[in-house]
Amino acid sequence: MDEVHHMSDPARPRATLSEVAARAGVSKATASKVLNARPGVAEETRRLVREAITELGYVPTTGPRETPGGQSIHVVFDTILNMYAVYVLDGIISGARDLGVAVVTSSLEEGGPGHPVPLGADRIKEIAAQGAAGLVVVTAELTGEEMTACEQADLPLVVIDPANPLDERVTSLGATNWAGGVQATRHLLDLGHRRIGFAGGPVQSVPARERLHGYREALESAGIELDPALMGSGKFEESTGAVLTDRMLGLADPPTAIFAASDSIAVGVLRSARRHGLAIPGDLSVVGFDDTYNAMWMEPPLTTVKQPLRQMGRVAARTVIELAAGKVPDSHHVQLATTMVVRDSTAPPSR
């Protein structure tokens, strides 16, 4: 009876999910699964957690179930050697700071730039063993084994701009890439362009494919037949834009505009155009995607589709902490809106 009286004492601080987990002898993530009636927990474990909830008088809240002070988020990038990663990391750090959470970062390019290594199940186990509240993976490819490793380690996982399709076990964040592809292409169509090239990202990348599909949709809606000679793909790097633009400008009927699937690719497009003696935008209009810091400092300043990169980072930090606290996400895939930013690299075609 003393225990019951203590539970009802209004002076006693609210019990936390961590206290429930400790009383039941399980991890906080396992206690969260029981609380939210999720599968993958033995019946005996469920009984222990329910008993702990009753004994402690634990009452779930509608938001994060406890203050995350002292926790840390581990963030893994495929590479940090681009402005995209800098913007996303800035958002994650800002969001984590608001939550009182530390951020630990690492890159898959341990072998040096251009030599990524897989994340791997062993590394995931190490991150969990180090006490991370959750894992945020940015633009890297995740295997089924790695997703399973996160589940088994009770390590909440959020992926920003996944490089490959993911199942419902994973919460992912990104921009409205398809809509952004439509926005970029329609901008060029509205200016009067009809020969519009597409310099795309990796074929396996989900965001790159969505941008390509947006480009195709805009052209098809305008009644323009797709020309495979005006489409190409590669890495999200300057060299991709240069190689693809060299090829397109060698056609008998070259494009009057090119939509690049990232600002870094757009840099290569501009470089190739100048090498061919073309004026931007007089001879060739160029649209990028991302709106990173260097877009406005290009010559001329780049028209581009703005991704809310910092906001994506902030949302990822908040989401992974909410998952660690036991909150079930409203959606397993969240997309934040893109906007068109018109600068000086686009104009009506001269021919």
From TrEMBL:
SMART domains attached to this UniProt entry: HTH_LACI
Keywords attached to this entry: DNA-binding, Transcription, Transcription regulation
InterPro entries: HTH_LacI, LacI/GalR-like_sensor, Lambda_DNA-bd_dom_sf, Peripla_BP_I
CDD domains in UniProt: HTH_LacI, PBP1_CatR-like
Spans annotated as Disordered: 1-22
Pfam family, one: Peripla_BP_3
Biased composition (Basic and acidic residues): 1-12
Domain HTH lacI-type per the UniProt entry, residue ranges: 15-69
GO molecular-function term, one example from the UniProt record: DNA binding
Name assigned to this protein: LacI family DNA-binding transcriptional regulator
Organism: Glycomyces mayteni
